[in-house]
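Aim 2 progress update. The chain analyzed this quarter is reproduced below.
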Amino acid sequence: MEHGKPAPWEHRSLHIDSLGNPLNSYAIDHLPEGWNIVASESSPLLGSLAERYEY
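Predicted structure tokens:
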């Protein structure tokens, strides 16, 4: 999410077959000690030119 807006479908790391499936959203208020969440860029999927992020 950037500037309070969710990423468009094309920027998400989701397979095109998932387009009609419901999506889940999670809010995490704390993590166990020693855990962290890392965001990184992944390769375009199936010829898509959009940048995608993995968490």
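DSSP finds no helices and two strands in the chain. The longest strand covers residues 40-42. These observations will guide the mutagenesis experiments scheduled for the next reporting period.
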